[in-house]
Automatic annotation (TrEMBL):
Domain FAD-binding: residue ranges: 12-363
Molecular function GO labels: FAD binding; monooxygenase activity
Similarity comment: family membership: Belongs to the paxM FAD-dependent monooxygenase family.
UniProt-listed PANTHER family: MONOOXYGENASE, PUTATIVE (AFU_ORTHOLOGUE AFUA_6G14510)-RELATED
Protein name, UniProt field: FAD-binding domain-containing protein
Pfam families hit by this protein: FAD_binding_3
Domain of life from the UniProt record: Eukaryota
Lineage: Eukaryota, Fungi, Dikarya, Basidiomycota, Agaricomycotina
Membrane-spanning intervals of the chain: 12-32
Keyword field contains Flavoprotein: yes
Entries under Gene3D superfamilies matching the protein: FAD/NAD(P)-binding domain (3.50.50.60)
Annotated SUPFAM superfamilies: FAD/NAD(P)-binding domain (SSF51905)
Keyword Transcription regulation: no
Keywords associated with the record: FAD, Flavoprotein, Membrane, Monooxygenase, Oxidoreductase, Transmembrane, Transmembrane helix
Length: 451
């Protein structure tokens, strides 16, 4: 059995983007009692490649929804920790173990899950809700009316769809963002160039480059590589990220390329075995990462909300960009389950902005600081980093009991704990318990309880 609080006012949402962010948002709003239309320009049933990193702050939220715990048990790879390796030699330089005691306190695990598995389950939940409809189309325009008068989106084929609120969940190259800012947004700051490769798992095993269930990070000069080895999967997904410019990287995010795309990346300093691994790649997906100059995620008149990569500029394919999208979705669902009158819509969106802006900024800064640290060039700072990481390879770090009082462990784990312990639904509950008097007499949001 399950119980679900339903909003007294039904709102019509137009969600642009049918990826993980859009589907999660649509379902969160649907089970809160609202009508949702998802508009997706791509094939709605197309198989997607890649792996999604699911930190505890994400898995804890998703387990509230039907079938998610079973999906994790059956399809996800548990991650035992972060393995840091020297990119030039492949030798381990550190290991941040996800101790069972710490993960138990967090009430969730760090998992890796195929993107297609997560997307298809979210799609199933949306279809099963009875509150979500899917429209295939390419958005080319947004209406300019206030939220009280409704909103609309124009599609390339001439259709116009109307609703109350538009949610832009269409990724880091968001069309909604461009239309939202009338294409007058200042130039974005490019901070990373990335390529993500699909490599046969056997190629990794043959070269002894990673241990199973470890989130392996190879540290290079002004670049890094990462991936999670799962022998149950036929593919290994290797991410290459550089903070130096790649002038020739002119690509289409939605296309797959071959290895001829890679010579523009300076990978000369990496282990020859990694070069062999790259030569085995069957698909290559490039990404240019930018940080938006305008960080606003909500329109001044509250008719448009941006979520996920369309809003957040968190490091793509990092630890937290997908988790931020799930948190965005759950926050919206939680807030809009409490809206009783149309007059409260703008206030609810304001609360959303107040809750999400500092959280996303915290994660954004942390992710880019970690990238900078891992990508340090040869020198004093890099040696200091390696010396600190080497401490985690000492025997006393093998078990939590032997090192739980270590100041070094506490210092190393503190930023991870801060990120992992956050619960987006509890954050909404806490806000309303302190400041939500204008929503008084409304029961707390119950996302889902599965017997």
């Amino acid at each position: 059995m399950s119980s679900q609080h339903t909003a007294q006012l039904q709102i019509q949402f137009l969600v642009v983007g049918g990826g993980v962010a859009g589907l999660a948002c649509a379902y969160a709003l649907a089970i809160a009692g609202h009508e949702v239309t998802i508009i997706e320009k791509g094939a709605l049933d197309a198989k997607t490649e890649g792996s999604v990193r699911c930190p505890p702050n994400m898995t804890r939220l998703l387990k509230r929804w039907p079938g998610m715990a079973a999906l994790f048990d059956e399809r996800a790879t548990p991650v035992s920790g972060l393995s840091f390796r020297d990119g030039q030699t492949g030798v381990p330089i550190g290991f941040m173990r996800f101790y069972e005691e710490l993960m138990s306190d967090l009430r969730a695990d760090f998992l890796a899950l195929k993107h297609d598995d997560l997307r298809r389950h979210l799609d199933f939940l949306c279809a099963s809700s009875g509150q979500v409809r899917f429209v295939h189309g390419h958005v080319v325009g947004l209406s300019k009316e206030s939220v009280d008068d409704g909103v609309s989106v124009s599609l390339q084929d001439g259709r116009i769809l109307s609703g109350d609120i538009i949610v832009g969940a269409d990724g880091h190259q968001s069309v909604v963002r461009k239309l939202f800012f009338d294409e007058r947004e200042p130039s974005d700051v490019v901070v990373t160039w990335q390529v993500h490769l699909v490599i046969p798992t056997q190629a990794v095993l043959d070269r002894g480059l990673a241990n199973e269930h470890e989130f392996t990070i190879w540290a290079g000069d002004n670049s890094m590589m990462s991936g999670i080895l799962d022998t149950a999967s036929k593919n290994f997904y290797l991410g290459i990220c550089t903070t130096g410019p790649v002038a020739a990287l002119n690509c289409d995010w939605f296309k797959s390329y071959d290895n001829t795309f890679l010579p523009d990346f300076d990978l000369a300093g990496y282990d020859p075995r990694i070069h062999e691994l790259i030569d085995c790649a069957t698909d290559c997906h490039p990404t240019i990462q930018t940080i938006h100059e305008n960080r606003d995620a909500v329109a001044p008149n509250s008719k448009v909300i941006l979520i996920g990569d369309a809003a957040n500029s968190v490091l793509l394919h990092g630890t937290h960009n997908t988790s931020m999208a799930i948190e965005d979705a759950m926050t919206l669902g939680s807030l809009f389950s409490r809206v009783r009158t149309r007059e409260k819509i703008k206030k609810a969106i304001g609360v959303y902005d107040d809750l999400r802006e500092p959280r996303v900024e915290q994660i954004r800064k942390s992710e880019y600081a970690s990238l900078k640290e891992i990508s340090l060039p040869q020198g004093v700072e890099r040696q200091r980093r390696d010396d600190a990481l080497q401490l985690t390879l000492q025997p006393e770090y093998a078990t939590y009991e032997d090192c739980s009082d270590s100041d070094d462990l506490i210092e190393a784990w503190e930023p991870y704990i801060d990120a992992f312990k956050y619960d987006a639904v509890e954050a909404v509950d806490d806000w309303f318990s302190q400041l939500g008097s204008f929503f008084e007499n409304v029961p707390p949001y119950i996302n889902i309880v599965v017997a």
